[in-house]
Amino acid sequence: MTTDLDHDALERRLGPREHPRGVIRYGGAQASRGLRLTGFLVAISQPGQREAFLADEAGTMARFGLSQTEQALVRARDYAGLLEAGAHVYAVAKSGHAFGATLMDIGARLRGQSTAELVAYCQARHAAMHEKP
């Protein structure tokens, strides 16, 4: 796939690309380690399991066999911790339904910002990308 974007020109205008704090390389070992946690997060994104989770978080986590560490990450809504524990990023994003969080809320927490700060940052980056040189 080709693109009309001149990445060098964008970098000159916007500055160097930012790499998110705590970048995690997700591969086979990470996926295997987080299989149970990923399965849990995917499950609670479905209406019936989500209702069960919201009615009894501890019982639902125990039923899925989450370790004490995994349960603590879920209780804290520690999205970075969930990723470090091997949860797949898509499962973490989908879990927002059960946690009452939007994708922007999750992204903001991962960046150490409020949702409003992340929205403002994204809007500024978008506007800068579309400025005429």
Task: Explain briefly what this protein structure is.
With 133 residues, the protein is mainly alpha-helical. The chain is built from 10 helices and no strands.
Detailed description of the structure:
By secondary structure, this protein is an all-alpha fold. The protein folds into two domains: 26-99, Dioxygenase LigAB, LigA subunit (Protocatechuate 4,5-dioxygenase, Chain A, Orthogonal Bundle); 102-133. Helices cover 67% and strands 0% of the residues. The longest helix has 15 residues, at 115-129. It is elongated and about 55 Å long. The two termini are 25 Å apart.
Q: Which short descriptors sum up this protein?
A:
133 residues; mainly alpha; Protocatechuate 4,5-dioxygenase, Chain A; 2 domains
Counting DSSP E segments of at least 2 residues, the number of strands comes to 0
Helical residues, percent: 55-70%
* Count of runs of 4 or more consecutive helical residues: 10
Q: Enumerate the spans where pLDDT stays under 50 for 5 or more consecutive residues.
A: none
Q: In one word, what is the shape?
A: elongated
Examine the coordinates and then state which fold CATH places here, giving the name of the CATH topology of the largest domain.
Protocatechuate 4,5-dioxygenase, Chain A
Counting copies of identical and different chains, the oligomeric state is: single chain
What can be said about the biggest beta sheet?
none
Cα radius of gyration in angstroms: 18 Å
- Element string (H = helix, E = strand): HHHHHHHHHH
Mean pLDDT, all residues: 88
Strand residue content: under 5%
CATH top level label of the largest domain: Mainly Alpha
> What is the CATH superfamily label of the largest domain?
Dioxygenase LigAB, LigA subunit
The CATH architecture category of the largest domain equals Orthogonal Bundle
Question: What is the count of structural domains?
Answer: 2
Structural class: mainly alpha
